[in-house]
Amino acid sequence: MKRKDEVIEALEALGAKILQEIERGENPSLEVPIRSLSNVRYNPETRMLELGSERAKRYFFNVAHVRKFVQTVEAAALSKELKEVGKHLSLREAFYRMKRTLPGSDINLVDEQEESNQAIEDLELITNLSREKLHFNANKMGSVAGKVVIEDKGDVVDWSKLGSGGWSIPSNVEEIVFKEVKARFVLYMEKAAEWERLHEDRVWERLNCVIMCSQGQATRGVRRLLQRLHLEHGLPIYVLTDFDPWGFYIYSVLKFGSIGLAHISEQLAIPGAKFLGLTADDVERYDLKKHFIKFEEVDLRRLEQIAKYEWFKDNKEWQRQFKLMKQMGAKVELAALSSKGITFISEHYLPEKLRKQEFLD
Amino acid sequence: MKRKDEVIEALEALGAKILQEIERGENPSLEVPIRSLSNVRYNPETRMLELGSERAKRYFFNVAHVRKFVQTVEAAALSKELKEVGKHLSLREAFYRMKRTLPGSDINLVDEQEESNQAIEDLELITNLSREKLHFNANKMGSVAGKVVIEDKGDVVDWSKLGSGGWSIPSNVEEIVFKEVKARFVLYMEKAAEWERLHEDRVWERLNCVIMCSQGQATRGVRRLLQRLHLEHGLPIYVLTDFDPWGFYIYSVLKFGSIGLAHISEQLAIPGAKFLGLTADDVERYDLKKHFIKFEEVDLRRLEQIAKYEWFKDNKEWQRQFKLMKQMGAKVELAALSSKGITFISEHYLPEKLRKQEFLD
User: What ipTM does this complex have?
Assistant: First the structure.
């Protein structure tokens, strides 16, 4: 119940502030932190991308501001309604819900989803509550299995007893309660096919862990679920991606956050996450050069960008990986480990890497 | 156990035939149905896209044939190994597993995944068994909830007791056993966000059904799961997509099959599936013109293609929809129903359409 109050309180405080300004005969205003690149910085203390302190003030009686002002207030009203009736909307549904025509005019409150999305992001910034807590959902994607029991919507779900499919991760994991966490760590991988490999081989049972995947870039629901297991239950998060710049980028976003979501890093980033592979050393050790996928120009550019990231540029271990990848001029997929044996990744690669604690930080 | 025998039998028969030819001093050969467009036809009796009777013979002692011949035999050997050890591989993993260098040469058995994929498809055609039964998995995607209890890998999973996430649908659903099917029909939708709407509103409980989604085009696992519920338990399958040519295409593939997978229609297509919406009539009735998304050139072209499909061209109801859409020159999303109310789709739209039995066939 406490969580509900936090949201209602924040929304009511926002409404009360505006009402007060109206009653005082002042020009109602909203103060919103600026989300542009110039206001995003990497904080070496917290090891996260964060929003700086620049803020903008938006006034109701200002033709340049009024549209955004009203949209943000509408998002707040919709969030309060959703909270009160206990429902959630996807961003797309919220767009249609907010796209109403103002009475006595032919003006829509929002015309494009970009507008409602930004209003919701502004509301996140103003209230310091994530979109999910405000009852707006992002995409649903991903699966999980392992030694954890949760309670969700009145159901008790044991992630270790769900057959070959596993639990389908919802877009919003704020209200999940962890009932029993026997797992000692989490293996996160970018590909569902890899997850099915590890699940069929019952890696979560043998290694006493949780296995989780999204597809490509992790969804917010997946990131938040990883973060909650990490923060609330102290589980280490180990990230398993291909040996390629895009895999490294997936790891980077999970760990340090991203520019686009810098305002919400605290609720998504996992500075304690570690990279478990695939590395250049694995490519040598397991003789995977035969399975090189040659770099395209775009891969090289991406690698060079990543190598310059503030959080990587003084990291010797990572710089060594970037250098070796550049020398190889090629990527290697985790799936290439199948060439060593059907279950090689589950029975050799992972146990060995974990035993030797071969993580990159 | 019967299912296991079916696969091993087919693979052993294939091996025995080749061995026999070798012992007799004949040129070993494989007979494979041709998968080109010219050999695909629509069968109005079964209402499915099917492969015609054209076949090609491939010989071992033929420089133009030998590579494909050996690849197909390798796929068969790998399938048998997988079956015997009770494991599955994704197509990508299978590619790496088959990409071995022939002893005493620098020739790889396969160089590109396209080659191993085709070898596996050939094996499907030769054995008349789906890739999934041969232990090769496609993509994993999609969620399900509702009044069904299954047994899978020794776990009993109740699809109605999985919190907000639902069951994550595996890539391979061949070995799932339906223990209890109380649901009276299945609602299939293309978007996960729509699924979350219906799940939060507990539509499957109110209407006593199953709700299932993939994302975009349905995966093979999802299609096969729908088909099994339809054929083995007589559940009607109702398809819910946006009012747009791509939504209609998703329905068309689910129901009649697709050209690329015509050889496996029997194991994927669901001729009994029905379209539940969104229709042009819904757009009128629920006053959704305000939410028109104007056609691009590419939408119009797709619509015109679909309108000419053999299975739609004499269907008056569908032709009427195509004509109305063309007149509107616009698409409308299911999510636009949110403009009528947060739970409008769950509490009004669906119950009304189902009560009136407003299906398109």
Answer: 0.93
